[in-house]
Amino acid sequence: MTTTTTTEVGTTEASAATPPVVVDVRGLRKSFGGHEVLRGVDLQVRAGEVTVVLGPSGSGKSTLLRSINHLEKVDAGYVRIDDELIGYRQVGDRLHELRERDVLRQRARIGFVFQQFNLFPHLTVVENLVEAPVAVLGRSRDQARELALTLLERVGLQDKADAYPRRLSGGQQQRVAIARALALEPKVLLFDEPTSALDPELVGEVLDVVKDLARSGTTMIVVTHEIGFAREVADSVVFMDDGQIVEQGPPAEVLDDPQHPRTQAFLSKVL
Amino acid sequence: MSITTSDITASPPTAVVAPARKAQQPRTVPLRHPGRWVGVAVALVLLAQLAHALVTNPGLDWPTFRAYLFDPSVLQGVWLTVQLTVLSALAGFALGLVLALMRLSRSPLLRVVAYGYVWLVRSVPLLVQVLFWFNLSYLYQRIQIGVPFGPGFFSIATNSLVNAMGAAVLALAVNEAAFAAEIVRAGVLSVDAGQLEAAAALGLPRRRQLRRIVMPQAMRTIAPAAANQLIALFKNTSIVSVMAIMELFYTVQVIYGRTSRVVPMLLVATAWYVALTTVLSVFQYAVERRFARGAGRDGGPTRQRPVHLLRRLRAAFDDLRARAAEGSLR
Q1: Cα dihedral angle (B124, B182, B287, B234), rounded to 10 degrees?
Q2: Nearest one of A51, A45, A53 to A223, comparing CA atoms
Q3: Average pLDDT by consecutive 10-residue portion of chain B (330 residues)?
Q4: Beta strands at A21-32 and A76-81: parallel, antiparallel or unpaired
Q5: Strands A220-223, A236-241: pairing kind
């Protein structure tokens, strides 16, 4: 058994065979009020890898994801994406928080897909996709629109380009949200329970889009409760409990032969 | 097992349909509201009485009303009232927007300053404020700048501070800003927090988040309240008549002071206030429609047109006819 725990994770020296580490999370700690939600989390994701984060609610999965793009400020630890420190600037042995403008620029290269989609309801589907590339990357409107239509085709919604989001089903809205995140050509895509707000019959269409992205080599971290999806798509499964990663490894190991008692207990309930 | 079988045979599916009208689906009958029709009748009688009183009472003196409705001095008063409204509304809402953003800022100092402003201005009657500014302009006549509040009102020439009109605009704008600030703040707070998160996650610059994502959605909440406030401001311009500014109400006062025809002249003012408020209401409807884009699957409640009432009346009439026909069949 090669099941690893938090203390053993942490080898980042890239050999010639393995792709480089894109997301490097080290020693994240975060408290809300008196409650410590993240209690020292380390996580490495290599280029093209899909990492699925499982765990009971309240285990810190969402906070971890939101810390990666600095939507949540952490109390200790750091996140590097493509060797760039996120949200901070290192001076000697200190990390100085970046100005908001610079954080926003960094976020543009980290795609984020929300549980509640969070599409802009007053903009049409295509306007939702055009907004950020124009405002952040300085693309021309025509250029951005062209890319937007290509992405909509990729998620199977090219005919909905001029519809307003509220006229779409939940599954369609989430596919638009994924296309919106892709429009910035991110280095990594973060999914925060992308199917939890959907009716059961709409889950499949969204997961199909995510699977398609996985096959095309997009680096992704997916927080989800869909065990079947994890088994099929994940390169690595991370099980979190009580603010820590308690078990991590390929899906065949973590899902089918869990070593940690808390992983076993969780899986016995959801499978 | 035997129980289920007997259950099925005991209730044949045909039992649901009334035997008198077989091979026909049962018709749904909406709930009747006889009380509403009584209410309509009472209201119509009262309206008729009111109309009768308006036409027959000689004290209302309609010939004088007609003579003065489009009198040049009255028209000039209307024009000044409109100017007062527009200038104070623009300055008031500009300052109100700044105050609202201050109250929503992360800086405690800015929050406290903005709250203090709103608290003070809301606590003082408008009439008192108007008189205060009127006298302050005397005090500061020789000082070119000198009002210790933000730069919002300086879209008007600073030297107009010294005359009564400037003081009037200032008083109305300062008062308007306090209420506008609360309206804008409520609008911004009404936007779902997820919208800001999504905008931040996409890396949109802060100003653009506000301008492109937050404000258009906040306008759904702001528009009705702001229209209310604008209409209140429009009528509150009558208060500056205490400064002998020849706006609509003061003009009317001057005329009835000379002619002693108080009631018809008040009616002249009323007619103009009602007419212009109606224009504002139409404007409000247009603005609300504009910002209802994408708000719900049917376009949102403000998209409903008055046509619906006609359609409902027709449906009620059709229903009555159907029932009459049904009755004659029996």
Answers
A1: 0
A2: A53
A3: 44 49 77 91 95 87 92 95 95 95 94 96 93 72 51 48 77 95 95 94 93 93 93 94 91 93 94 95 90 66 53 76 68
A4: antiparallel
A5: unpaired
**Rounded to a whole number, what is the distance in angstroms from the first to the last CA of chain B?**
45
pLDDT tops 50 at residue A245: yes
pLDDT tens sequence across A70-126: 999 999 999 999 989 999 998 888 888 899 889 999 998 899 999 999 999 999 999
Q: CA dist A182 to A150, A189, A210, Å?
A: 11, 8, 11
Bridge partners of A245, per DSSP, are A240
Query: A264 touching B, CB under 8 A?
Result: no
Nearest residue, CB atoms, B297 vs list A105, A116, A166:
A166
Cβ-contact B70, B251 below 8 angstroms: no
Contact residues on chain A for B194, CB-CB shorter than 8 A: 114, 116, 118
| Cα of B304 vs its chain's centroid, Å | 17
Partner-chain residue, chosen from A104, A116, A122, that has the shortest CB–CB distance to B200: A104
Q: Read off the amino acid at residue A253.
A: E
**C-alpha distances in angstroms, B271 versus B52, B240, B248, B275?**
18, 19, 11, 6
Give B262-286 as a DSSP string.
Answer: HHHHHHHHHHHHHHHHHHHHHHHHH
Segment holding A76, helix H or strand E: strand A76-81
pLDDT the model gives residue B263: 92
